[in-house]
Amino acid sequence: MTALLSIRDLSARYRRDGVELLALNGISLDVEAGERLAIIGESGSGKSTLALAIAGLLPRGARIDGTIDWQASQFQTPRSGEIGSSVAGAPALKVGEGDDDSAISPLAGEMSGRTEGGAKDRQPLHLRPIGGRDVGFVFQDPSSSLDPVMPIGKQIAEVARTHLSLTWPEAYAKAKTLLERVRLPDPQSALRAYPHQLSGGQKQRVAIAAAIAAGPRLLIADEATSALDTIVQAEIVALIRRLVAEDGMTLAFISHDIALAATLADRIAVLRHGELIELGETRQILNAPRHAYTRALLDAHLGLDADPLLDRQGASA
Amino acid sequence: MNAPVLAVSNLAKHYRRGGQPFPAVDDVSFSIGPAETLALAGPSGSGKSTIARLVLRLIEPDVGRVEFEGADFLALSGAALRARRARFQMVFQDPLSAFNPRATVARVLDDPLRIHGLASRTERPRRIAALLERVGLEAGLAVRAIHEISGGQRQRVAIARAIATRPSLIVLDEAVSALDVSVRGQILKLLLDLQRQERIAYLFISHDLGVIRAVAHRVVILDAGRIAESGEARAVIANPQSAIGKALVAATPRLNRTRP
């Protein structure tokens, strides 16, 4: 397998309440092209920070060290206008450091802003992915990722228009096809619906349609089913599995739920306190975890075959 | 058999949605005995949380009867209702939104003791320390602000506040759903210890059948406001009869580990 992206010694620091927080600590990890990788961990493990770093969405003010290198051959056509600057010695983009004017950090590929002794080898600019085109991102709460006052058809069409250079009519046709693909009932009239008219599960289907509208190589789902009930969660996981297979996308599935992650993933990465604790094939992680923390996570899972905590003697009714 | 702590009969609540009456809760009856855990399960919109609000009298039902410790709970008002409410507590999913985040832990635990007249001003610090110890927290935590402590600690404080008035029933509305799995197990064990020692009944609302199977004696599965099926928790989950029960079991993720 070839790596879609290679993460090396990635660290991320935030300042919160005047205290510096090491959110990621020396993560090295290859995401293979076409694989379904689950990144799991508890709160504060750094799993969402890692997802945002891969997508280049870390907030300004985050200090990032290390590199995220994207495999050139995995990209779509180079973007016009940027090829010219793809020579060695391209201007160094510092990532999210204090005075940087960019609202969000530039997309990955150049993460060595703090490297001592100046610039490392940098990836040419055209090898950096574009959010929305090369990376699709699905967040936990579709109510906050969708615009409440824009019809959903337009929100999806906008992505297709921006990244695929389509006209509006073409983009709307694409949006309708996407709503069919995510199995939203009555796609034609759904184009004109607003997010508040949809259920939580339907909104997440729309968010997924927007995320894949430009045909990204990588789909990142960050706790995308955590706010949904069990039945809708299973439907959305099945939808993600189908879309990833149909489009040949690579999937990064971020979750706190190891059992849910295992239903979908080829490999599982376990994060704790910002460190990559263990990485392996799903079957190995489940049946032969090497790290005590992974074992503890598995043992803490209350499945339908777990030993009940309840002492039956206490029953009274 | 002991007299039930809580007996709910023919409870119904309709809302209007798009001009049409829409049954949030429709003809629901169940009872909970002392030291028993009854779980309410079901998908979003099945009526779980509406039932919790109805029995707590945060909202009033259209029809139905709620009997708490043998008294008609819906007929109580004023001082009699307040006195009875001390025996009937609740813990929600997110204690950060249930508490004033800037209040100290001591303040949060002082309130019920003071409001219900359970301890004198001089006695209260000792009672607060005892409550913290009871839920596995250090007495030193009392001076910390609610927003400063971890989610697991906060949920322990919520439980300490709930047991401060020596209730016979606690409504737990998705009380462990937001916790990390490693913390969740500890909180569930704490709840079971308290139940055994103080004979507290729980109305345990959860969307997670794995958790319900681990801690509940009986389960009621709801669908669109109605009871789809009910029975002994492990038996129902092992062999669900209703369509919604089957769908919930089928949708619950499984680890499929090969057992060593």
Automatic annotation (TrEMBL), chain B:
It comes from Mesorhizobium tamadayense. Keywords: ATP-binding, Nucleotide-binding, Transport. One of its GO terms (biological process) is transmembrane transport. Residues 6-249 form the ABC transporter domain. Gene3D superfamilies: P-loop containing nucleotide triphosphate hydrolases (3.40.50.300). It comes from the Bacteria. This is ABC transporter ATP-binding protein. The keyword Transmembrane does not apply. Pfam families: ABC_tran (PF00005). PANTHER family: D,D-DIPEPTIDE TRANSPORT ATP-BINDING PROTEIN DDPF-RELATED (PTHR43776:SF7), TRANSPORT ATP-BINDING PROTEIN (PTHR43776). Belongs to the ABC transporter superfamily. InterPro entries: AAA+_ATPase, ABC_transp_ATP-bind, ABC_transporter-like_ATP-bd, ABC_transporter-like_CS, P-loop_NTPase. One of its GO terms (molecular function) is ATP binding.
